[in-house]
Amino acid sequence: MKNKILRAKNWITTSPVHANWKKGLVSCLVVATLFLGFSVIAQAASYTVQPGDTLWLIGQRFGVTVDEIKQATGIWYDLLYPGDILTVPDKNTASPNRSTSLTSRGGIRPSSQEVQMLAQMIMAEAQGEPYEGKVAVGAVILNRLEDPAFPKTLSGVLYDADAFEPILNGTFHSNQPNQESIQAATDALSGLDPTGGALYFYNPSTAWSPWVFSRPVVTQIGNHVFAK
C-alpha cells in the first residue's frame, strides 16, 4: 500500500501531463493578470494637481468620489500639493452610488461663498491645530445646521450670538483661509466628522464658561475638546 501511495505521489510531481497542466495554469493566471492590469489602466486617467485643487473639487470635476480617487491612486491622506500625480478612475466604471452634486451629508447645497466662509472660520478657530482638528471644527459647524436648536443657514450658525470668538474679536474677517483650511472645509462638507457628531468645541486652557464644561465630552483633538 505504501508503495502505491509513493508511486501516485511521484506521478503527481513528475508526470508530464501534470507538469503541462501546471504550466497552463500559470500561463492563464499571467494573461488574466495582465488583462486586468491593462483594463484598469484603460479605465483611469492621470491628473496633475494644480494650485487650489482639492480631492473633493477634482472629484466633482470628473464625476467621481474622493474615496474612488484615493483607492485608484493608492493614497489614504487628503492633503495635496501642486505637481502631485493622481489616478482618476473613469466615471463610467466608478461606484454607481456616487454623488456628483454639491449636496453634502446633511442635504446642504453650499455655494462657493459658503465653502469660503466655512474655511475662513476653520482658519480662524483652528490655525495651528492638526489637520484632523481643522476638519473637526468644520464638522461641528455643520452638525449645528442639522440640530433644531441652531439656525438653519451657515451664516446663521456662524453669526449666532456669542457662538464663535473670531466673530466677536474680528479675526474671522481679517483671516483668509489657506489651502489646508479649504481642504478641511470640503472634507467636512463631504461627510467627514472626526468628532462623532459633536456640537461644541473649546480649548480647556482658555475657556471660561462653566456651562460648556458641563457638556458631555466626545473626544479631544489637538488643543480642542469636542462635546455634545
Question: How do the strands and helices of this protein lay out in sequence?
Answer:
Blueprint (H helix, E strand, L loop, with lengths): L1 H13 L1 H27 L1 E5 L6 H8 L3 H8 L11 E5 L22 H15 L4 H15 L8 H5 L6 H5 L1 H4 L4 H11 L10 E3 L7 H4 L3 E5 L2 E4 L1
Antiparallel strand pairs: 1-2, 3-5, 4-5
Helix pairs in contact: 3-4, 5-6, 5-10, 6-10
Describe this structure in words.
The protein is mainly α. It folds into 3 domains: 1-42; 44-100, LysM domain (Membrane-bound Lytic Murein Transglycosylase D, Chain A, Roll); 112-227, Cell wall hydrolase SleB, domain 1 (Arc Repressor Mutant, subunit A). It has 11 helices and 5 strands, in the order H-H-E-H-H-E-H-H-H-H-H-H-E-H-E-E. It has helices spanning 2-14, 16-42, 55-62, 66-73, 112-126, 131-145, 154-158, 165-169, 171-174, 179-189, 210-213, and strands at residues 44-48, 85-89, 200-202, 217-221, 224-227. The strands form 2 sheets. A 3-stranded antiparallel beta sheet has the order 3-5-4, covered by helices on one side. Strands 1-2 form a two-stranded antiparallel sheet. Helix 3 (55-62) packs across helix 4 (66-73). The N and C termini lie far apart (75 Å). Residues 2-15, 21-42 and 94-103 have low confidence and may be disordered.
